[in-house]
Amino acid sequence: MKKISVMHILPSLEVGGMEKGVVNVVNGLDRSRFRPFICCLEKEGALRANVKEDVKVFNFNQPPGVRFFLPFWLQGLFRREKVDIVHTHNFYTSLYGIIAARLARVPVVIHGEHGLMLQDRPRRKRIGKILYNFADVILTVSENLKHMLVNDGGMRRDKVFAVLNGIDLKKFDMILKQQEMADNEKNNLIIGTVGRLVPVKDYPTLLKAFSIIHSAFPQAQLIFVGDGPLKGKLQSIRDSLNLKESVRFLGQREDVHELYRRMRVFVLCSLSEGMSNVILEAMASRLPVVATAVGDNPLLVDNGKTGILVTAEKPQELAQAIISILADANKAEEMGKAGYARVKERFGLEEMISGYEKVYAHLVGKKGVGRS
What's the predicted TM-score (pTM) here? Predict the structure, then answer.
């Protein structure tokens, strides 16, 4: 029986929530039914090492920006590999991938939105409203994003569907068993965040909040896991607040799962979010989460039970929420347990992969594409 060939289009395989999600999907697809590929428009990246060996990865190695020839290059690739489904991810790849797929007469074209809100970018909204109509369906990583694309982005309701993000709980359970933390390490007051050092994460607010926290808990530490263009600016803010000894920038790390286990509380103070993988990872690590009440964060964090939701760009409110958890170890432990239970019940990796498989199989069957 012919397998369904699925080509995922990404800017790169640099570390990020969207990229991790795509790698999880291609690695987990049932190989008796699907043949997955990845195409990077700009470069490969650190996550290339996490892709299973049987997955072909194509790299066009193009710098960011408008590249009018890319649709024609992609068209040739789709035809050579006899692609049944093209699955673009976020706005940038859709500009090239959707057009190329239609030129190559690929049977099924899917566009995935992972949190890039078109309604916040009027020009992209106008382009997307036209371009996405050439996709068979638009997949979002949450119901909230689905509703936003329909209500604010002008997308047709019958073309937008949600497949919720999921994570591999087995990986976190294994780390927990392998690394039972000593009591003195568990008692360290480490506040942690994971993500790219970019404006949307609003890390200056976290640094200001930590300045307040540090006054109440001088032994507290703040760690940033991730890299990005704002690293120098954030280090300058840290130094101006006299926090150099208590705030560390760890850069991009391969041991993020182990680092979660060293934290007392996880913080995400973004200005906007889709369905955050790092929140799910923190909850799977049995951490209480303090997050801004933006995007899909309220769907993940059960306010007062698995963590605390706060208003964006409010350092004092953020600081008080974190202090309330640092001051009560029992509260932190109970929130962590409740968060783990929530992830286990609703956001497992198997459910996410199964969701994509059902969409792929349904659309291929609907188009009458021959397969076994």
Answer: 0.80
